[in-house]
């Protein structure tokens, strides 16, 4: 007993001595880049550079990011994807959820400690912005972790996709009456570390810890390294028991880290391949190269091989992973609910995404600020606005979320503030989840992650414990679906938040500086939180009897009329040219 009492203060002394503060000063600015070698365009960088820096800290460190919005014409914010922000929910970053977006010329500071080791990333959480470049890896090193000492070096490989057009241009075409089927813009290329010529120089007989993240707007990628096996040890910040894989499937936003042991001979180099999952694309454009190739280089004087042809993708199934801590399935949920995914047209003719018939529309007041100022009404979902799709959990609820995918597409669902247990995932086209179906069996020590793929027409069961008071979004991480409303808002223990959280003045000043409300219900009403008049709502439904097909027909006649005008214009201009000649 005595020695323990003596040992404790020494331990805490050691840990405070080691933890440090890591500070970044980020000025968000436009710059130019041509990452696929085909097209130079304006991109959003940091401090005049792109790719943006990797945030690199150690477990236990405090991270301080001083953010300045140097964009003359756009809002911004930063989200640190995968960090729980337990105790610092106001540092999570999504605009209109935990803060106001920074307008041009505004600044604010993110400041929090990080106690989770692993592979993360950070990105703007203003609708549709990160595909324009503001996305980078965030690594939390763990020198005392369970796999420490099992590798010689750490390496980062970030997958992504790339568009030649800027997001606002693509978005105005995507969410419009001219695109009634909701076909998502297809990327122009795939990238690895934001380039198409990624070298990975290795020494023979060594083991590398390869940390990977897919920072894509849309495309999932199949990934493999020819002639080598990957030993997975982490997914989305959760250590797993070691699992061997020849090919890994990365949805947008997912991370894996794996151990890679190199060969003992240096006579050959090997292709590293990422291949976009073309099932996601409604139409594959002519000439699209879905692949990006890097090289594992043992000897730079030897040739760099082209990848060999693969006729079938057989990726590793993450459902089979086991968390290293062996955590059991959470039993007896105290809050169970389901969300059904659907796509449909609204009265403006555009194609939206829905959970249970609602498509997300941001509130007038950031949801967290509503939670903090609403007293006892904070437990009443209505005050957060109909179209934020709110769910309120009590502190320490065991939450069960059933997702039914009533859409023929694959969706990577992400939850802020938590990793969830993937208790069950059905095959393709299984239909609605049915708890009484005897073929449904739950994983007993389920894999945990923060982003998980649901199969087309399938369902899944997620569980987690509400041990993190805050306001957390649940959404599809395909940025197009963020923009078409596939987002729900989870308000967790708002009563606890009210006594523990204080919003720093510089965060409130971001709202004040733009005359945006920082208190009140979703409609900005500070007097009566139950009066939602004036709240932001989605467009009205289509008039009865009007179908998506009807819109297609309508659009075709409009397009035909346009073609007619174009033909006349063409003749007209030819006439002009002839006259000039
Ligand atoms: Cu990468 Cu809402 O998050």
Please characterize this protein's 3D structure.
- There is one protein chain.
- The chain is of the alpha+beta class.
- The protein has three domains: 313 residues, Cupredoxins -  blue copper proteins (Immunoglobulin-like), CATH 2.60.40; 178 residues, Sandwich (Immunoglobulin-like); 34 residues.
- The chain is built from seven helices and 30 strands.
- The strands form six sheets. Strands 10-9-12-17-14-15 form a six-stranded mixed β-sheet, with no helix packed on it. Strands 21-20-23-28-25-26 form a six-stranded mixed β-sheet, with no helix packed on it. The chain has a five-stranded mixed β-sheet with strand order 11-19-18-13-16, with no helix packed on it.
- A hairpin with a 5-residue loop joins strand 20 and strand 21.
- The longest helix has 33 residues.
- It starts with a helix and ends with a helix.
- The N terminus and C terminus are likely disordered.
- CU-O-CU linkage binds next to strand 5 and strand 29.
CATH top level assignment of the largest domain: Mainly Beta
Count of domains:
3
- Major sheet size, sense and barrel closure: 6 strands, mixed
Order of strands in the sheet with most strands: 10-9-12-17-14-15
Structure summary, number of beta strands: 30
**Which blocks of ≥5 consecutive residues have pLDDT under 50?**
1-15, 563-581
Any idea what the CATH superfamily of the largest domain is called?
Answer: Cupredoxins -  blue copper proteins
Number of helices: 7
Proportion of residues in helical segments: 10-25%
Q: Give the N-to-C terminal Cα separation.
A: 102 Å
Q: Would you give the CATH topology of the largest domain?
A: Immunoglobulin-like
């Amino acid at each position: 007993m005595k020695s323990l009492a003596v040992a404790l203060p020494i331990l805490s002394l050691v840990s405070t001595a080691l933890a440090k503060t890591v500070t970044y000063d980020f000025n968000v600015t436009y710059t130019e880049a041509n990452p696929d070698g085909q097209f130079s365009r304006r991109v959003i960088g940091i401090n005049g550079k792109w790719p943006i820096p990797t945030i690199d800290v150690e477990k236990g460190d405090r991270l301080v990011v001083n953010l300045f919005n140097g964009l003359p014409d756009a809002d911004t914010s930063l989200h640190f994807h995968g960090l729980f922000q337990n105790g610092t929910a106001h540092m999570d970053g999504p605009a209109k959820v935990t803060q106001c977006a920074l307008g041009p010329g505004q600044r604010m500071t993110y400041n929090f400690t990080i106690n989770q080791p692993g592979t993360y990333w950070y990105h703007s959480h203003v609708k549709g912005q990160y595909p324009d470049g503001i996305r980078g890896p965030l690594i939390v090193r763990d020198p005392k972790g369970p796999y420490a000492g099992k590798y010689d070096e750490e390496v980062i490989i970030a997958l992504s996709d790339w568009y030649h057009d800027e997001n606002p241009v693509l978005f105005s075409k995507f969410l419009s009456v001219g695109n009634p089927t909701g076909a998502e813009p297809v990327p122009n290329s795939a990238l690895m570390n934001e380039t198409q010529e990624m070298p990975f120089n290795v020494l023979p007989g060594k083991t590398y810890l390869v940390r990977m993240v897919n920072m894509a707007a849309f495309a999932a990628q199949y990934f493999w390294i020819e002639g080598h096996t990957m030993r997975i040890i982490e997914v989305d910040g959760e250590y797993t028991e070691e699992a061997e894989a020849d090919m890994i499937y990365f949805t947008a936003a997912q991370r894996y880290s794996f151990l890679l042991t190199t060969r003992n001979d240096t006579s050959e180099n090997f292709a590293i391949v990422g291949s976009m999952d073309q099932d996601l694309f409604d139409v594959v454009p002519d000439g699209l190269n879905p692949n990006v190739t890097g090289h594992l280089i043992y000897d730079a004087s030897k040739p760099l091989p082209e990848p060999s042809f693969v006729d079938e993708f057989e990726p590793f199934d993450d459902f089979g992973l086991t968390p290293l801590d062996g955590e059991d399935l959470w039993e007896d949920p105290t809050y169970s609910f389901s969300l059904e995914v659907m796509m449909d047209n609204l009265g403006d003719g555009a194609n939206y995404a829905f959970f249970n018939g609602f498509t997300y529309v941001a509130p007038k007041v950031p949801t967290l600020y509503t939670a903090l100022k609403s007293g006892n009404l904070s437990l009443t979902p209505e005050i957060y606005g109909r179209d934020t799709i709110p769910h309120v959990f009590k502190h320490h609820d065991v939450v069960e979320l059933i997702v039914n995918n009533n859409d023929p597409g694959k969706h990577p669902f992400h939850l802020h503030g938590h990793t969830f247990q993937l208790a069950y995932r059905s095959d393709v086209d299984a239909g609605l989840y049915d708890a009484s179906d005897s073929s449904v069996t739950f994983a007993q020590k389920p894999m945990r992650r923060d982003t998980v793929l649901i199969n087309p027409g399938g369902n899944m069961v997620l569980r987690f414990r509400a041990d993190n008071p805050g306001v957390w979004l649940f959404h599809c991480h395909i940025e197009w679906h963020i923009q078409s409303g596939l987002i729900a808002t989870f308000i967790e223990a708002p009563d606890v938040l009210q006594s523990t959280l204080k919003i720093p003045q510089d965060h409130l000043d971001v709202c004040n500086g733009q005359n945006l409300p920082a208190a009140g219900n979703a409609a900005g009403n500070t007097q009566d939180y139950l009066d939602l008049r004036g709240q932001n709502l989605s467009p009205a439904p289509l008039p009865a009897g009007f179908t998506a097909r009807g819109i297609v027909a309508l659009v075709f006649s409009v397009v035909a009329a346009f073609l007619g005008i174009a033909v006349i214009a063409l003749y007209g201009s030819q006439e002009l040219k002839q006259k000039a000649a």
